[in-house]
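Structure (tokenized):
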């Protein structure tokens, strides 16, 4: 996923879900969930030589990447259960906040 502007990169998550590391641009969004040389290899944006170096590094160092660990970690972070729980928490927080505005005494 060699991109200048990325909001999430579900392709990276899909690859990691089956144990495949990704080569990604060195952008803050990828650093939120990618681990250098564990789940991904970071390549400097606007630097094609760095991207080529990342490919070479991957080819020469495939043994660094543990497919089972990558897949397990991705499942822990992005499973239906985990994401569903996060939405549930958010909705509950929003409803609680909305009710607090209508009735400030409802939290007491």
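Design, position by position:
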């Amino acid at each position: 996923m060699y991109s200048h502007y990325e909001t999430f990169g579900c392709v990276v998550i899909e690859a990691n879900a089956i144990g495949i590391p990704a080569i990604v641009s060195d952008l803050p969004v990828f650093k939120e969930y990618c681990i250098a040389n564990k789940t991904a290899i970071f390549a400097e944006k606007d630097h094609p030589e760095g991207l080529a170096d990342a490919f070479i590094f991957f080819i020469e160092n495939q043994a660094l990447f543990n497919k089972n660990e990558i897949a397990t970690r991705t499942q822990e972070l992005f499973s239906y259960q985990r994401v569903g729980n996060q939405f549930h928490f958010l909705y509950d927080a929003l409803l609680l906040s909305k009710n607090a505005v209508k009735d400030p005494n409802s939290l007491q």
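Reviewer-requested clarification: The mean pLDDT is 87. The two ends are 49 Å apart (CA to CA).
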